Each structure stands twice: as structure tokens, then as C-alpha cells.
Amino acid sequence: MPPFRCFALLCFSLCISSTGLSQLSTVDSLEQVLLSSKNEAKVDVLNQLTYEFITVDNEKVQLYNGQAIDLSKRIAYRKGEAVAFTYKGVNEYLSGFLAPAHVHLHKGLRLSQQIGDQKNAGYSLLQLGNLSLEEVATDSALYFFNKALAYFEDGSDPATLSKIYRNMSAAYGQRHQIDQQQKYLDSAIALRKTLPKKALLIEALLLKANNNIRSNNVIAADSILSAAEKVAASANEYEESRFDILHIKGLILFKKGDVDGAMILMDSASSFFLEKSLIRKYITLQMDLSLEFAHRAEYELALDHLYPALELCKLRGYNAEVRSIVTTMGWIHYRLGDFPQAVVLADEVIALQTNTQLKAEIGTSFLLKGATLTELGRFDEAQNNLDSAFNVFQAVDAKRGSSDALMYLGYLRVKQQMYEEALLYYGRSLDLAEEARSDYSLAQVNWGLADAYFKLKKFKESTHFLDKAEHYCGLTEANEILIMCFNTRRDLLAAQGQFEASLAYSMKASQLKDSLHKSDIGRKFANLEKMHQIDQRDRDIRALQQEKQLADNQIALQKSKLDQQFLLLIVGLAGLALLSFVAIAYYRFYRRIKALHFTIVEKNQRIQVQSEELAANNERISELNRGLEQLVEEKTNELVKTNQELVKYNNELVQFSYTVSHHIRGPVARLLGLSDLASREQDNTSSKQLIGLMGTTAEDLDQIIKDLGQLLDLRTTPSHYREHVNLEKEWQESIRSLKESLTGSETIESDFSTLPEIFTVQSMIQSIFHNLLNNAIKYQSWDRSLVVKAKSWEVDDSAVIQITDNGLGFDAVLYKKQLFKLYKRFHTHVEGRGIGLYLVKAQLEILYGSIEVESAPDEGTSVTITIPLEGKKEVLANKQFDTAER
Length: 886
Fold this sequence. Notes:
Layout: H1 4-16, H2 24-36, H3 39-53, H4 58-74, H5 78-94, H6 98-115, H7 118-134, H8 138-152, H9 158-174, H10 178-192, H11 199-214, H12 218-234, H13 239-256, H14 259-275, H15 279-295, H16 299-316, H17 319-335, H18 339-351, H19 359-375, H20 379-395, H21 399-415, H22 419-436, H23 439-455, H24 459-476, H25 479-495, H26 499-680, H27 684-716, E1 722-726, H28 727-737, E2 747-751, E3 757-761, H29 762-778, E4 787-795, E5 798-805, H30 836-846, E6 850-855, E7 861-868, H31 873-885
Helix pairs in contact: 1-9, 1-11, 1-15, 2-3, 3-4, 3-5, 4-5, 5-6, 5-7, 6-7, 7-8, 7-9, 8-9, 9-10, 10-11, 11-12, 11-13, 12-13, 13-14, 13-15, 14-15, 15-16, 16-17, 17-18, 17-19, 18-19, 19-20, 19-21, 20-21, 21-22, 21-23, 22-23, 23-24, 23-25, 24-25, 25-26, 26-27, 28-29, 29-30
């Protein structure tokens, strides 16, 4: 299987790893400083300790980080708070909790930008880029890295600048832009050679060595690893870096064929990563081991390393790694001939596809399914999946993936007995494999060409490509392909009548297959033996530690006993001295104390009497205070209520004064104008017309004065009488009063069965019904017959009455602020004064009720009024009484 996903995973693993364990003396020193630090200085030390432990001890990270956040908030130290939230986000995404990591990194960035902390703002952007790499969001990662670059490109912090270059290299690696990947990695290495902290340089060198391993340049990888080992030897305090070196060195030994040596190194690194909770590094190492064993056709061992890694990935939520592991397991089942299970795993990976998934990884999923469906004889489905795989690999310029897709398309044509077309696919695959310099792919495609030529009975060409395939198998130890080559050569020789040679190759194939099986079993026994040795060593170490602990405990106990004896001696001497001093003092002051005792008793008696008198006085004062407080509170409430009502009625008076001046001004102006014209007019006929107009204007003025008089009566006259009001009766009375406005085509319905009557002021209910029904009739739509519906019900001790119509309607949202204002109209094509809704709202306020209007143009209007029932009687009566007083 092409190692695209494995490459991306290891790149990212190296990108997010720490710069190694901090020196023990540094951590001890910081923890000592912490004991004497306060306020802002303590927050800074807590943040530094968080950074030192961030990939070493998760419990300490959470402890110190939580303390830093709490203290920085308590003392309003925003710079320390910003750094603490940034480190919290880093720890969360390193632990696999990506969603909260986003929140806390952005919070740290925002706080840093607000206070102008350029360093932490740039560092937060760097970590957001790393988080985007984790989510395989390459564009977002490069965006954050470039933003971070702007903060550090002046060279003020070369260590952080080198991290940006290194992670940009990883991002370009995900994009398969190899030149850019190498460029930024070399820039990071050049910077880190100048830094005193060599763990960063070791990390970059290991990343470059791993890149060379993935491109099968083992010599270059070995040379770079040697350089990393020299740096680590000169700075032996970087323990984590040493085990990273063992990981890469194990991969190189695998490539060189030293499996036992590789496994020793890998086991050591794996144990360290687990012990230090470096879970992502542990998972990457297990995946590397599985790929190496699968490459050597030791499939059971490969699966043994994949299963624990898969469980950890699912537990931690590493979805990208889950997809990669399941894909690898699918290829192993394909090689084992378990094609149905391989299809199931391929479908599982395809179902897990996301927008953030690497495109090459998606292509590998389609490639697996296409290859497996070919073996199952489902050729049309296989063709579709292989075409999809090829298109994906072409889009990302993945030459090896494209070569593998063409190779499997050629194999599909062989299965379909379309040998000439198969040769065309194999030929294109061979060219791409040579460009990609993939020995494994070259071995596989050369075998495919040999097989196709054999099927065409072109034995010479078949022999030529078999020789090439066996050559590349020898370079890469591709044992599974070598077995296929032996079987094809067996068939080729048999077809040429060379039966003895054919039998020899048949035996070679069987022996190689058996040796792989035996090697697999032997490796398992060797691993079990190593595990037993490691367990025995751990038991011995624990026993020695227990003995040492026991000895230390005994020494500590003896020391404690000596300290206790010395302390008892000192306490005894001090006690004797104190006792002597007390005896002398007692002797000197006894007589004086005895004399003073009688004086004190006498004074105490007088004080007791005075205290009782004071207590009685205090009780009387307290009672007076409570009465005064209650009286002041009552008066204050009355004043607040009176003030609120005065403010309300003052506002209404202002509005009333404005309305009177505005609406009376027009008729008065017309009267003055008409009278002036009449005085100048000589013609009697014209004078009579002018006088008629003056009469009409006077009638308008009279109507306005009546309206205003009605409003004044409503505000100043108390309700005459509250009684039980039958809603249906008042509704029918309103219909009768408006009978002359009806044509007979209208439908007016009512349903007051749920709440037939209420206890309120009958005249106001009649007025409300009259105004609302009048509006419905007046503003009906001439495109349809008028339908008016009225109903009532009770909600929360209040009567609710709703009147709806299908009339013209209006934009209730647009005119919301003008709905209940005096002389406001929304339709001008019919006669009206704009006083109806104002009167309704004013009457409802007196009844302690409310009104809501819902309407839309040409969709009718719904008016809902709410009036308190029995529970509000006392409030309503008080309100009416107040209105009468005013």
C-alpha cells in the first residue's frame, strides 16, 4: 500500500512533539521559585512550568495551568491569562481534544492582541496552525502559519521562527509539494543550528531523515540520522529526543534487513512513549511497525501492532489515524486473500470520509476497494473505484498512487482476458513508478507485465519482465511479489516444456511461503520471550526499588526518633524554666490580684445593672426604628408610585397638547382663510359657497373638539360601575349599532362559549367591540367577502378576547410605533379619523388590560386584548379610584 497517510502522520507527530524533557535542575528551580512567588510573578512561573511539562506529565500540566488561569483572573493579570489559555489549548489538542483546543487558543490569541503581546499572539497563531494540521485542514494551517510568520520574521525569536518553518514544511508535505516541503525544512534546520537548545535541531533532522526513508533514500536518511545522533550525544539531557532517534534508526534497520536489531530499538522507544503518555508518538510507531511487517508479508505481526493502535485512536478521537489504520488492515486482508473482509474495511473507510481528509488517503481507499472487487469478479464496480482512485491521485500529483491505480487497472484487464489493453495500463504504470522511484511499485508492475505477456504466450518478453521484477523484489524484500514471480516463472517454464526447472521454481515458491509463515511464528515467539525478559527486568527493578524504599524508610524512622528525643529534651528544659518563672510571678502578684478581685467584683455588679438598663433602652429604640423604617418605606413606595403616574400623565399631556395644536390648527387656518375671502367677495353666490365651506370646516373642528372631549372624559371620569358583562350580548349590540354600514354579504361569527362573561365595565367593553368591528367593516377588502370572527378564553386569571378579519390589513411591523397614536391612519381611501385604536388602548389601560395587533398587507388583521379577571378586581378598583381623584 502506498504510504501517503503514514508519511503525513509521522510528519505531524514530529511537528507537534515538544523540544524534549526540560532539564531536571530547571524544573526543580522553577518549583522552588514558585513557593516564594506572588501575584503576577507567580502566574509567570506557573505558565513556565506548564510549558516545561506539556508533553511530559499531563497531570502537572493541568494542575499548574489551572492555577495560572485562576490566579491571573483573580488579580486581573491579562497577559498571564492569555498565555495560560494558549497553553491550555496546546495541551488539549496534543491530547486529542480538538474542539475545546480551538476555543482556548482563539481566546489566548484574542487576549494577547488586545493587550499588544506580540510574542504570545504569534505563538497562538502557530499553535492554531498545528491544530489545523491535526485536522488535515492544510489551507487553514498555512493561513495561520503565514500570520504567525509576520510576528517573528524580524528574527527576534529564532526558535519560534524555526518551528513555523518546520510546520509549514509539514503542511506542504500534506499537499505533496515536495520542493516547498524540503525548502522550509532546510530553513528550519539552518536556524536551529544557531540555537543553544539542540532538541529542536534533533527534531528537524529526524523529520528530514524520515522524509528520505519514505522516498527509499536510505543512505541519505542514515547520514542525517548520524548527524542527529552527534547532536544528541553533545546534549545528553534530551531524553525524549534519544528515543525519537531510536524510532527512526529502527526504520532504517528495517530497510537494511536487520529486523531483530530494528525490533529491539522499536520496543525500547515504544515502552518509553507509553510510560511518558506520548500517545501519538506511540501510535505512529505501531503503524510504522505494521507497515514494515506487511511489506515483508508477515501479516499477522502487522495486525498485532495495528489493533492496539486502533483502540487507542478510537479512545482519543484520532479520526484521521483511525481511517489510516483501517485502510492498512484492509490491504493486509487483501494480501491474505480474505477479500470480503477487505471490502468491508474499504467501505468503512469510505464511509468515514470527511472534508478534512487527505485526498491521497481517499484515493487509497478507492484503490483498495477496486483491487478487492477485481478479485471477487465484480469488474464494473472495480473499474469505477479504480478510476476514482486514479483521478484523485492525479489531482494531487501523487505519482506512486497513480502508478498503483494504473497497475490494478491493468490487472483488472487481465482478469477480463483483455491482455493488450492490460499492457497499455501496465506500460503507463511503469513510467510513473520509475518517476516516483518506488522499487516496490516497480516490482509489482513488472510482474504484471510478465504475467500479461505470459497470457499472450510471448514468453521472451515475459521472461524479461520477470527478471526485472525479481531484481526489484530483492531491493525491497517484497517477498509476496517474489512468490508471485516464482509461480509465474513456474508456469512459463512448464509452458516451454522445461518441467524440471518449473518444478524447482514451484518448490522455491513453496519454501519462501513456508519460511514467511515460520518467520511470522518465530517472530511471535521472540516477541513473547522479549516481553517475558522485560517483565522480569521490571519485576527486578521494582523489587530493588522496594528494598531501597524500605531502607530509606528505616533511616527516616531512626532519624525521626532521634529528632523526637532531642525535641522532648528541649521541651522539658523549657518547661522547667517556664514553670519556675510562673511560680515566681504568681508569688509576686498573688496579693495584688486578691486585692483587685474584690474591686473588680463590685465594679462588675454596677456594670451589670447599667448593662440591663442599656439593653432595655436599646430594645425600645429598636422598636421605634422598626416602626419608622416601615413608615418611611410605605411613604417612599407611595411617592415612587405617584411620581411614576405623574411622569406618565405628563407625557400623555404633552402628546395631547401637541395633537390638539396640530389638528385644530388646520381647521382654524381654513376658517381664517375662508372668512378673509368672504369679506372681499362681492358676488353673493360666491359668498354663499364660501360660507358653506366655512360651515363644513366648522363641523370638522367641532368633530375634533368632540373627539378630544371624549378622550378627556375617558381620562378624567372614573368608571361608573363594574358588573358581569355578557360578551355575546355586547358583540351583537355592536353589530346592531353598525347595521347601516353592512351590506348583507359579510360573515360575522362569534364563539364566547369558553368564557361567556367577565366582571368589568360594560360601557368600555361595548366601546372596544364597536371600534374594532367598525375598523373591520371600514377597511374590508373589495376582492372578497368580509369575514369577522370573535372568540374568548381564559389564560392565567385573565380574559383573552381575539377579533380577526380578512380585510386589507397593513404592515404591523412597519407601523408598530404608530399603531396606538392619536389620528394615525394607514389607509386613506376611506373616511376615518384615526382615533379608534387609540380609544381601545386607552380604555384597556383603565381596565388594567393590554392589546396586541398582528397584521400584514392583504392578509387581514388579528387583534388580541387581555383583561384581568377576579384576581385583579382590587387593583382595578384602586386604579379607578386614583383616576377619579385626578
